[in-house]
Amino acid sequence: MIPNRSALLLAGGLAVTGTVHFLRPKPFDTIVPRTLPGSARPWTHVSGVAELACAATVAHPRTRRAGATATAGLLAAVFPANVRMAVDWRNKPRALRYGAYARLPLQLPLIRRALSVRANTDP
Fold this sequence. Notes:
Putative membrane protein
């Protein structure tokens, strides 16, 4: 894949997901790890802001390398929420359950994509 195109696809995905954190926060609230202090909604908003910030930095060539690094870290940091979703949704309808399970192995290619964008961006 062309490096610039790969970066823009990554940025676009982050922008969409970050925006959804604000438009439809409830599903994200339900997967915030219980070990985090306070209520879930602020954590949902913080993660949405983080995704939007990563999207903006990955989209801009001058900040792309740092943004891709931050994106890989963010994707690793939210993995526990995906695990919680898979566990909590084990009794949901099949399509929802499989969607939650599919998020787990898909996190790795997203992290690899972010690291690839970083590697293909001039320092």
